[in-house]
Amino acid sequence: MTPRTKPPDAFSPGETPTFEVSARESLRDSQLRRNLGKATQTIRRKRAVAVEELPDWEELREAGRALKERTLRHLDTYLLQLEESVTRAGGVVHWARDADEANRIVAGIAKEKGADEVVKVKSIATDETKLNEHLESEGIHAFETDLAELIIQLAGENSSHILVPAIHKNRAEIRELFLRELDVEDLSDEPKDLTNAARLYLRKKFLNAKVGVSGANFAVAETGTISVVESEGNGRMCTTLPPVLVTLMGIEKIIPRWRDFEVFMQLLPRSSTAERMNPYTSFWTGVSGEAGDGPQEFHLVLLDNGRTDVLADEIGRQTLNCIRCSACLNVCPVYERTGGHAYNSVYPGPIGAILTPQLVGIGKPGPDSLPYASSLCGACYQVCPVKINIPEVLVHLRGRVVRHKQDGGTLRQRLDPENVAMQAMAKTFSDPKLYENAQGLARVGQWPFARGGKIGSLPGRLAGWTAVRDLKPVPKQSFREWWKEERG
Amino acid sequence: MATAKETILWRVRRATRDVPEGERPGDVPVERGYRKEGDGARAGTVDRFAAHVAEYEATVHRLSGDDLPDAVGKILEKRGLRRLVVPPGLPEGWVPGGVEVLRDDANARLSNGVLDASDGVLTGCALGIAQTGTIVLDAGPGQGRRALTLLPDYHLCVVREEQVVDLVPEAFARLEATVRDEGRAVTFISGPSATSDIELNRVEGVHGPRALEVLIVG
Ligand code: SF4
């Protein structure tokens, strides 16, 4: 099969639609909503049980947050320490200012080894840089080896969930896809059989690949140890079998010391898959040399690509604490209804709503709309294992979006109804009380008053809001009200 | 022209201008109020380990050391496994008669093809973690290279009771020296591999051994 190219998103060249426009499309897809509803509810329930089992959960969260704060405040020191440790252990460290530079480094290594195929374990960082597309353009096929990633790669689609990217596909669709693409004759739609078909297909790839590509969940500055946390075993395959391994990671993935795993390896599995521990975690330190254990060559690519801009914003900085557990997605009432595609980003849900606009920079209509894709109910903050105050960052970013329009714009743009509306919205959203009132009013007072950018006849702040929030129909219940009920 | 490394470090420093000049990493407080050790009741620890491993759909047996070779032989026979991979440093007495032993050796390494075509692998481990039902391999004696426990379709792992620690922090503490001084690879195994990618139905055994069986030896 030939890997298909995924549709463009916030990290591709060009513009993406706003959240409202895409959400409207997703809301029409009832299958998607059913799948998502089932998934998020199941994971939500299981996660609560897994977390309750630990009497020291809050202490772990606080330690996780503090360790990330320490790392980020002294990131220059830790980056240099990591480079030194990895080099000492026989690895090679590369630095990439942006996506393009990272992609060229990886492609360069693959070409040097004469590889026209690489096997990949799921990594959102490589999705962000569009590594697969770049490799393809250089004649190198990148094979995704996570079951879900394989499914969406075969289908030429984007992930809809950090953790279960193919959550929008049902078994019949997957069977059809495999029959068409995997060169199998006969296949039932039993998940067990479908999984086995993928196992057989990928085993050949693993055994023959010259180059493996991975992301990293953590990198230890002190020892140079990298870790990949996973369920399926394809991560172990990709990081063990090919003679050359390339790991691409964002510069924020560092943790100071080996012992700090004692915090993060408790926080991540329970928040993510709601398990005491995920099935497999690999920790490797450079290359093993004599012992012949794993790759003979290891490359670590350290990626900036906007992360230092996030770091520079004192309120936004905490966004870089994120360990990509996806707990915030599963509790988000907006995400549950719209699904991941509406965010037009490799980072969906609440974390995506704050990370995407900061990484790509304020001033693009699609990403700029994301901080508004929230009712500020605060559920994401409550579950976040590294205590990112997502509502705080959302409100802060709304302010930045509005200010950007003011500062950057001409007088006419500044008087543009949309901009006036954005300012009003920022005020409204910065105060949950005002927000609730506004939503209540909107329902009573009929929504589409101010279509076409006219500031309509609704009073006060709401006037501005309706001018751009053409997200009709207004749900009978606001997300916030719905959430209150849901949690009883 | 500045290198990528110089540029990124410059950006990081500019971005963290708010951090006071003299602040050291250690000055940023990290409260470690979480539990670092269990309460030390050994019997409970091993029971918990056994129960948690079993919850992952792994098969668990508990037995005394004298019975080990017999037990291994019976288990392999019951599953009809004949070609058994054995890592360097595995106690000779653990390997039952009547099976074809594929021995991995620093001078004669088994190829990936041979590992792939084998029936299973028998190993020891570095540690067990009761809190999470995790088996820890650190490529030490009796465990071998990572590929040995990855390519065969079946993994039989022997855990001695004294290897079981209670909490996750105890495991990372015990592994620290191996990683820091020798740089050996560490693998955490908590049940066989699994996926819930298809309609959230859990399927055991995607890649790696599809079956995991654990012998806890007292
Ligand atoms: S923001 Fe927090 S909850 Fe959301 S994915 Fe990141 S770590 Fe998990």
From TrEMBL, chain A:
Gene3D superfamilies in UniProt: Alpha-helical ferredoxin (1.10.1060.10), NagB/RpiA/CoA transferase-like (3.40.50.10420)
Basic and acidic residues: bias regions: 22-32
One BP term from GO: lactate metabolic process
Residues of the 4Fe-4S ferredoxin-type domain: 320-388
Domain Lactate utilization protein B C-terminal: 417-486
Top-level lineage group: Bacteria
Name of one Pfam family that matches: Fer4_8
Alphabetized PROSITE patterns for the sequence: 4FE4S_FER_1 (PS00198)
UniProt-recorded Gene Ontology molecular function terms: 4 iron, 4 sulfur cluster binding; metal ion binding
Domain LUD, residue spans: 81-303
Matches recorded under InterPro entries: 4Fe4S_Fe-S-bd (IPR017896), 4Fe4S_Fe_S_CS (IPR017900), FTHF_cligase-like_sf (IPR024185), Helical_ferredxn (IPR009051), LUD_dom (IPR003741), LutB/LldF (IPR004452), LutB_C (IPR024569), NagB/RpiA_transferase-like (IPR037171)
Stored SUPFAM superfamilies: 4Fe-4S ferredoxins (SSF54862), NagB/RpiA/CoA transferase-like (SSF100950)
Annotated region (Disordered), positions in chain: 1-32
Keywords from the UniProt entry: 4Fe-4S, Electron transport, Iron, Iron-sulfur, Metal-binding, Repeat, Transport
Name of the featured protein: Predicted L-lactate dehydrogenase, Iron-sulfur cluster-binding subunit YkgF
Organism: uncultured Rubrobacteraceae bacterium
